Amino acid sequence: MTAVRTRRRVALLACLLSGCASLANAAGGTLRIITWADYVPADVVAQFTKETGIKVEVALSNNEEIISKLRATRGAGFDLAQPSQDRILGPQQEFGIYKPIDLAKVQVDRIQPDLLATVRRNATIGGRLYALPYVWGAEGLVVNTKRTQINDYLDLCRADLRGRTSVRLRRPTLMAFAFAMGKDPFALYSDTKAYTALMEQVGARLIACKANFRFFFDNRDQLLNGMRSGELHAAMMWDSGGWKLNRENPDIKFIAPKSGALGWLDTYALPARGKNEAAAYAWINFTLRPEIAARIAKSIGNFSAAKGADQLTDPVLRAQFAASFPEGFKSVRWYPAIPPGLEEIEGRILDRVKAAK
Amino acid sequence: MAETTTQASQRLILWLLLAPALIWLLGLILLPHLDLALLSLRERTGPGEYAFGLAQYRTFFSEPLYWDVFVRTATLSVIATALTLLLAFPIAWTIAKLTRGRLSALLFAVCLIPFWVSETVRTLGWMILLRETGVLPSLLVTLGVTEVPIEMLYRDATILVGLVYTSLLFMVVPLYGSLESLDDSLIEAGYDLGGNGWTVLRTVVIPHAAPGITAGCIVVFMLTLGNYLTASLLGGKNSLWFTEQIYTQFITRFNWEQGAAFGFLLLALSSVMVWIGLRLSGQRFSDVMSRT
User: Fold this and answer.
1) Domains, chain A, ordered by start
2) What's the rounded Cα separation, in Å, for the pair A38 and B263?
3) What are phi and psi of A219, to 5 degrees?
4) Rounded to a whole number, what is the distance in Å from the CA of B210 to chain A's nearest CA?
5) Cβ of A354 and B237 within 8 Å?
6) Domains in chain B, number
7) For A279-291, what is each residue's pLDDT tens digit?
8) pTM for this prediction
């Protein structure tokens, strides 16, 4: 007992004398990640800590909160963040919350080239890349086929579904409804005036539809519970949530809407003032290993950006994927980078929808 | 000479004793507010560029939506405060006047117990009770009151229920304090002089308890006005609480300038409402504060 205590004291003293920070870095230290639910599975963390000695602390969040939290500290507090690829450019130009990725420190050849190309297109600023792809999927519709049949976003507004549908009061909903109305919001990204006009149209459509929405959901579980309990018959949802419901109840299906599913791609990004860059690169390379990437993809229920982690080897998911996307991912639209200032326009429209009676 | 040293050391002790409070006030309340005030007076001119201006306040007055939410929040808060007072008065009266010793301590504990769990859990509890597939709607169907389960969530009435429930204790405590100190013989004298229950309440009890009532109302009104969780969870798609607007501006719109301006408008609103309340009830702020 005393021997252990003495040894600890000696270690502590040594640590104080040599400067704990450098010691912590050499021994691995702590990696602080801000990310989405299920993105950092506990068993993967355990293996990573065992191999590298780096402890991992995870904070769960979403796109807006990641940006807001990093903005508040000017990019400190976390060593790795996982925002969507379209949310890098605007916030980086506006607030400077990330630092560029040093590609020499990453095993880039392990990343699927087409996904890397998408991120390169949307997250390169001044010739430097600010993000790498991690996980991707698509947003579409989840429907309880026992209760109703739908095939596009605007069907959520059908009279027979009054009070039985839900969407998020966020920008993906605006985009989805714009496409369902036969418009292309992405083409108007650079034309503020036309974009505002289109958003006003979409806002009016959503307001007309408001009686159909039982609530605007804020998190995945809120929606899953609504679908499970039967309070909701159909909703806008992303694939992993839809397939999760499908595994529990085969009547609930995830479908790609006629106007096209919206593809999202979440990334690795380095906060500007992260302390443990070495640990962040170690984690990126670790999670790009095919077998680790496959485990992560399974935990999330989506698809990994790492080569060889093709999660479609899981027969259940393969069947679900084939049923939801009979033509594969051909009809999926990827979000282009959002220019700064655009979200203010959308924000005002979303506020109006919320306030409408 | 000796005397001045004592005086000086006494003054030093006084300052040392005040220091934590002063540091608190200055560092955690005054400075952040100053920072927010400056923030609310900025407008964005380009990526990462800002200039001085009143645009944020102009937006508030030019977009009817924000103004509506503002008025709505104030109105519902006043209603919630009035309901809380109506509910809390009999409770405080029972504890202070009708029960003694153990029983009154027990009643106090009963009021306190819900506060042992966090606000989130309490609010989620209400959601489980009131949602369409929840306890109360299915009970009503079983009893034959309604044919199909009805959705009780996402209505203004639900928000009020949640707000009153959350703030009841903060009304009971100051009311109890002021009713406790009322001499029973004064009430008896009121009856002896021919008064009925109503006149005694109006002319004896309420004037005596007025500082307590005002204190409770101020606390409850502030809590309600600044409530975020109850209003947004129970209110659903129509909740529209002003604090929610502030959160949205800060977190999901990245518009700190607008959020800061909204924050100051809310501060102004609560200050004005409290001032009006004091004016109407004829109370002095210092009297009321000594009761809270």
Assistant:
1) 15-134+265-309 (3.40.190.10), 137-263+318-355 (3.40.190.10)
2) 34
3) -140, 165
4) 38
5) yes
6) 1
7) 999 999 999 999 9
8) 0.82
